[in-house]
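Researcher: Next sequence.
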Amino acid sequence: MDSVVATNSLEQVPEAARADEAGSLLKPFEVHVQASSLDRFRPGLTAAEWEALQSHAEQAREGMSGRTFWNVNSTARGGGVAEMLPGLLAYGRGAGVDTRWMVMRGTPGFFHITKRLHHALHGSRGDGSPLGLRERACYEDVLRDNAEELLVLIRPGDVVLLHDPQTAGLAPALAAAGAGVVWRCHIGCDVPNEEVERAWAFLAPGLAAARLAVFTRAAYVPPMLADRAVVIQPSIDIFAVKNQPLEPAVASAILGHIGLVGRSPDPPAPVFTRMDGVPARVSRGADIVRLGAAPAPDVPLVVQVSRWDPLKDPVGVLRGFALLLKQSPCLRAELVLAGPSVTSVADDPEGAATFESVVAAWREQPRFLRQRVHLACLPMVDPEENAAIVNALQRHAGVVVQKSLKEGFGLTVTEAMWKARPVVASAVGGIQDQVHHEVEGLLVRDPTCLPEFAAAVRRLLEEPRLSARLGTQAHEQVRARFTAVRHLSDFASLLRRLDIRGG
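Model: Next structure:
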């Protein structure tokens, strides 16, 4: 599950700092989230839907009275967890629940291990490095330091939702202190293999202390957690900067300002509205690898926005687009592969190497192809500015693609669907729950098959009526299933189940 940034205003923190030099850098820090009222959802809901949301909010408020609902993950920006938490916690606070967000710290060695676990849970070898006693000692040492600091804040009876492999080992210490611990795994593999089993064996000692475990798909649940598993699918915040309405001319102006498309004559200001309602202007540029000029504003763009992760297969997207142009050299379209600045995501040590592999694959292409492919590292200093850029890019796109080899759940797919953009995505993992083939988008059955990918993209570029129909149906799919309204109701049910299990 990946997207580029968290879309709420976050305090600026030195996440990229490493802990080699001082243990103090292993102290977790809090990301402060302002409350948002649930009233903003009311105009888009039926009377029954609004009544149900209010009822779930009241149940959660009463059940959590005098207690805090903590979320702990490993980065405040970059990736799907950091993308979802700001909105969900803000609405939780707006509903009267004391929700808080803590970000743990780690060393480079720790994040290398957890990235290896990330790949393994997807069924992939990653770099093939070991997950033995030495790695377990490193993992547990880092988490022991973080747990000591968290235990100063977390009280008996509080609820702690731990996210993904980075935090799983915190469960025993927090449970021993009297907290109700839930672990949420945002990734998984539909058909488990030896790598998946290796990851679960590594994580098992920590997870034994979790009362419940939350998964995106039932297929991701391992036997050892089957009696404690809950399925909750992710969602997007439709009111976040990344998803707020944006006029086409303003989207084009933002992309023109950062250098991704050519500037239109007399463009409007490249502006957006922050989460606190204050108008703001995109002021930074993107770092772009390209040959020649930016595409004209009216050129259809094929766009993939993701972290620089080999499982997102950006090299495969590039080569699939190259095949498309080889087969249809007169097709008027250009490709944008966009991701975060490669040094900005603290818990992803592979970003820079993956980006370099994409640049190397781009350099292998003939000149005419390199002139129509643009590799963009988007600025991350201001998360809301970055969200506005991603919003503009997705809304400007002719086709949004997500050619993942593995995917827990495609938040970027959901974002594009909300914007009624036609989507081509791999039929893997949670994407299969988001998109039904030829209903809300086109699915590529074999994510490694470049001809199938190229044919799907060509079809959407050449059939505007099909693209419009899929986009309309995709927007309705998100409205019905993948917004915070459903997600918050799921959380209310989770809290009831947690209290029943805690007895």
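Model: The first strand starts at residue 29 and ends at 31. The chain is about 40% helix and 15% strand.
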